[in-house]
Amino acid sequence: MNWNDLATALFGADHAVRADGVFLSGTGQLDGRTLAVIGSTDHAAIGFDLALRQAQAVLQVVVDAPGRPILLLIDTQGQQLRRHDEMLGIHRAMAHLGQCIDLARRQGHAVLGLVYDQALSGGFITSGLMADACDALPGAEIRVMRLPAMARITRLPEAMLAELSQANPVFAPGVANYVAMGGVRRLWQGDLTEALRLALADLPAADERARDGLARGGRRLADTVIRQVLSA
User: How far is CA 81 from the centre of its chain?
Assistant: First the structure.
């Protein structure tokens, strides 16, 4: 689903979400309430400039519309792999984006992520995974690292990782595995406006991803370790 079809399905044809290149921003109306919409499209690579544009948009909502819910529409191939962006400090720009989203949450803005197409690597970590909750459409593609790249980094045979991915969601790409691990809270089916309404109505007050991962069998130790550390 492209971003305009999605915005229309969520808010109706009179939505005010606009694309400026791969950068999405604007507003939509839900039950008489205005939502801020920020995101990306066309499998955008999140580089230095785009990360700062998204961060600026988040801060503008905090300043201009206190308490307004923020919907993050996510379609990214991950961070921009260019020397230019590395020299400018892409790591700091992406960290700044994550901090701005965290600031919005602390200032009382409900922040909901929605992966509607593709979510890879750092572009996902500093957006959807920084929200109060992150949901996805069933056809979304989510992964942090391809198995060949994981094999090079870990120096484990790719065949071994492929075998592990059959039984352990941590090693496997795909939206269903991220649901199992708790990184994605739920998949939206049917009426997307109703799905958005329900998603905003039951945003968690605390980070429940490790608990969800344990309950769903995707992350069996994270919640236990977190509780042991907190009680130490």
Answer: 19
Distance CA 71, CA 28 (A): 9
pTM of the model: 0.90
Q: For residue 64, which amino acid is it?
A: D
Residue 218, classed as helix, strand or coil, is coil
Could you give the CA distance from residue 119 to residue 99 in angstroms, rounded to a whole number?
A: 19
Domains and CATH numbers, the chain: 3-205 (3.90.226.10)
Residue-averaged pLDDT of the chain:
92
pLDDT at 145 over 90: no
- Tell me the backbone φ, ψ of residue 137, rounded to 5 degrees: -80, 150
Which secondary-structure segment (H or E) carries 161? helix 158-167
Alpha helices, DSSP H only, in 15-146? 48-64, 83-88, 90-106, 121-125
Residues 41/25, Cβ–Cβ less than 8 Å: no
